[in-house]
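Saturday, quiet lab. Running sequence design on the structure tokens for the scaffold JK sent over.
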């Protein structure tokens, strides 16, 4: 799909066609080099490639940070939206690894992309939780060519997590409260995942209120997911409450 600057997919009409045929196309590559020409595109488009992971390959396309943030915020394909966010997070973490900053200020495009995900009324909460989870240490190790200091890599990831926590503290807290449910239901598992992610971000910074939220969640939980989520949020926090729980 090809998106315009407002996040709408262009109707796709190839040069040899008489009219547009939808706004998403499958292109079959049969040659080492293959060219496809679309017409009536009035702005340089942002391509959404391998939608629905339509081919089992690793794609190398040099998206800019702004383009990745755009796809993270607007892409209508769930896989590509998730992938754009993961690439954006990974690039930011690896930049912090290569050029450490004692206080990390995230680019506005990342903050705005996360905000749009959180505020969306149409996205499933389970998808929100998945999309806003940082790449794991294992994925990051695989992305670094050559040798890497594992302690430095974990620290770089934590710095990005702390920066996200600080930049969006109000949003994490608001969404945490919105995810609350009075009784356990299996079909609310997506809300639980998002709630526990918000709790983890809230506890990424030194905030006694966040610690109290985790304590109350653990003590009042009627399911093991919420208990584990509270323990996980407090895992790296030093203090009496963590030790007691």
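Result came back. Writing it out in full:
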């Amino acid at each position: 799909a090809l998106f315009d600057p407002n996040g709408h997919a262009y109707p796709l009409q190839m040069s040899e066609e008489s009219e547009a045929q939808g706004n998403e196309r499958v292109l079959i590559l049969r040659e080492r080099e293959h060219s496809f020409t679309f017409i009536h595109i009035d702005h340089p488009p942002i391509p959404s490639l391998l939608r629905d992971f339509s081919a089992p390959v690793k794609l190398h396309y040099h998206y800019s940070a702004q383009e990745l943030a755009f796809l993270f915020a607007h892409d209508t394909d769930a896989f590509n939206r998730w992938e754009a966010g993961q690439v954006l997070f990974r690039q930011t973490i690896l930049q912090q690894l290569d050029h450490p900053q004692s206080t990390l200020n995230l680019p506005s495009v990342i903050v705005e992309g996360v905000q749009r995900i959180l505020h969306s009324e149409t996205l499933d909460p389970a998808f929100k939780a998945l999309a806003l989870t940082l790449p794991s240490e294992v994925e990051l190790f695989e992305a670094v060519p050559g040798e890497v200091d594992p302690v430095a890599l974990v620290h770089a990831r934590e710095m990005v997590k702390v920066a996200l926590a600080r930049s969006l503290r109000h949003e994490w807290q608001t969404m945490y409260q919105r995810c609350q449910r009075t009784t356990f239901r299996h079909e609310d598992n997506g809300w639980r995942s998002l709630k526990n992610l918000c709790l983890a971000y809230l506890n990424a910074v030194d905030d006694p209120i966040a610690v109290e939220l985790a304590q109350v969640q653990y003590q009042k939980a009627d399911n093991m997911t919420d208990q584990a989520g509270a323990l996980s949020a407090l895992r790296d926090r030093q203090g009496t409450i963590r030790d007691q729980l």
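Notes for JK: The longest strand covers residues 2-3. The mean pLDDT is 93. Ask whether to fix the surface positions before the next round.
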